[in-house]
Amino acid sequence: MASTGKITLNDIMKNRNIKANEFNTTGYKRIELSPYDVVPSQSNFYSQENIEELADTFLVVGQQQPTVLGKVNGEFRILSGHRRNLANIFNIERGYKQYKKVEYLYKEMTEVFFELSLIIGNAFTRKLTPYEEAEQIRRLKEALIKARDEEGLEIKGKLRDLIAEMLNTSSTQIARMESINNNLIEEAKQQFKEGNLNTTSAYETSKLPEEAQKEIAEKVSKGEDIKAKEIMEMVLEKKRADKEKVSESDTEDNRNLATIDLDTGEIVEQKIPNYLNITTAKLIKDYNTDELASFFCNKCLNLAGGNGCAGICDYAVECNGKNNHEICVKWLKAKI
Fold first, then answer.
1. 84: which of 1, 24, 52, 70 lies 20 to 30 Å off by Cα?
2. pLDDT tens digits for 130-157?
3. pTM exceeds cut of 0.85
């Protein structure tokens, strides 16, 4: 893909290689560069471990796969092979001059296409941690929205379904990870990153209020083993408490619908609530954009367990819990 031109989903999917443990480099050119002249991607969120061991391997059997680059605005940025490039630098700095220039593969591309290629190209090169999977989904969603808004990428259907297809997983798994990304507080997210919370535990924790999440994060950070089942019970308890509040509210409303004769205990007047005379379809049809936004925001919050955004619209990545109504209005205006 050149640095100009409209991005298509086919261009993006070409970088995906599910079966092989390598980046798909069809159409890339060869070039020799200094490892110091290529730029590590700021978007790289994958683990960089065992560099010295990899550098030792290069001394014995050589570098079997070249590092893959994207040339963005004249700058060579690493797409795949961050560890390989660090291993080459490690060998240079311990005196092996033959690594001062090594072979790379590169292709010219735009900023947005580079980000998409980085995520998709690395999606299947190794097994990711649950935290890396969640981060991968977040970055991919952001990049797709940016490609749509800035470079005219045509996205048909639900964004969540597209991401699931691109990452060879289920829409349900994407929804779980989105709940973690959108609703898990930073303290709990750090424990998720460190492996102290697994995916199920992190997902269930994301449904809880902030204080409950802080309590769980603090406990697991101190080594306490909190099972996912325990967290699920906390979520169920919260739902039961919420239902009781709603029930109490309904009872109070019902009292206002009838006038009772205190001497006889008979109902002398009963009012019919206005909402019973209107169908749901007509009610929604008569909503203005602002009212519809409130309706969908409430639905989105309920899907997320009452704590943050569940990500049902294309602009969910911009939602921070405080601007949710504004984001929902923006989404509706784009749809209407």
1. 1
2. 999 999 999 999 999 998 888 888 888 8
3. no
